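Report of the visiting student (M.T.), summer placement. My assignment was to run the structure pipeline on a short list of targets and document each run. The first record concerns AhpC/TSA family protein.
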Amino acid sequence: MSRQGFVIGWLLALLAAVGSLFWYQDWLYQLPTPLPSVYKPVPVGTRIQAPQLVNLPADKPVFLHFFNPDCPCSRFNQPHIKALVGQFGRQVSFLVVVLSTKAYSPQQIRHQLGLDLPVLLHTSLASLCGVYATPQAVLLDTRHRLYYRGNYNRSRYCTDERTSYAKRALSSLLANQTGRVADARALTAYGCSLPACPRHDD
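After the run finished, the structure tokens were exported:
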């Protein structure tokens, strides 16, 4: 075999390996996130009582963006969360809830997201809201009752407007509509399991 043929063969093998890895990762994140054995469901309509929510504007719904900087799925949906903040930021209080085993400062998270939002390092909010994966969206009404908890989009990159679940929930709540997002793909968590985060609840 000539040297040129060897190089071409090596490059083709490398390309096939990269393609296989990408396919595997894509397939992996299309699977539902395993439900933790200690998971306690939190029904829609439950009032979420947490000190981190007390001083928020009383006339605005609350949107909690559960975010793990080390989760590929969380990184993929960053443009989408920026678009939601741009569209609904004046009507809704947006907060980022960081779930990670690593120590991130609020400034680091704001820089990574490109958003000037309050950043919470209070991991108890995940269990209070029934969240066990990232990224997840939680929407509370003005009385802090759970209105929506689920995925942002069916697409890994949040590009399918027809399944823009979090956006639909925001629009529905702001329009005072009683009908909620009920698609099973919206309410079954997909993404990264929560890491064993150190507690920051004081």
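The CA atoms of residues 70 and 86 lie 24 Å apart. The chain has two domains: 1-29, 51-193. I thank the supervising group for their guidance throughout the placement.
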